[in-house]
Amino acid sequence: MMDSKEENNLKCDIKENINNNQMNDVESILNNENFFQDKDFHDEFQFFDEDNIMAQHIDYFENYTVKMLQHITNYYKISKTKLKKEQLIQLIIQFENQDENSEVVYNRKRMWHYITELKNDSYFSKFVLFLN
Fold first, then answer.
1. String of b and e for 20-41 (b: at least 16 CB within 10 Å)?
2. DSSP letters along 16-74, please?
């Protein structure tokens, strides 16, 4: 019996195609001070904000109880004395869409997610009394 060993050597060359025209276009856009001040850009961004606010409103209205909304306002330290659901939602949305509150909003949503995960666990659900 004869042993035969064959080695297959594969050689690969990678060549990068650089299109100078494309690079120049990108650089010209990035260096154009008026690019991000375009009226259409601002209009589209405004529509995005309005759509986002509407989506937040629907989410809070459909998926949260008044008690849950009160927990959110308490976390944000928003005064909520005798407010109806619609008023609570408006206050929360207004707070959450201010840039200076983004860290607090992120932390609240993260903690809310953790609580939900604990409540859905067969063992830990016995220990979580929040949002009952």
1. eeeeeeeeeeeeeeeeeeeeee
2. ----HHHHHHHHHHHH-TTGGG-HHHHHHHHHHHHHHHHHHHHHHHHH--HHHHHHHHH
Read off the pLDDT of each residue in 103-125 and give the average, rounded to a whole number.
92
Please choose, from the candidates 122, 116, 108, 65, the residue with its C-alpha nearest in 3D space to the C-alpha of residue 89.
65
In this prediction the pTM is: 0.60
Percent of the chain clearing pLDDT 90 (strictly above): 46
Instruction: Decide: residue 72, CB within 10 A, 0-12 exposed, 13-18 middle, 19+ buried.
Output: buried
Report the amino acid identity of residue 24.
N
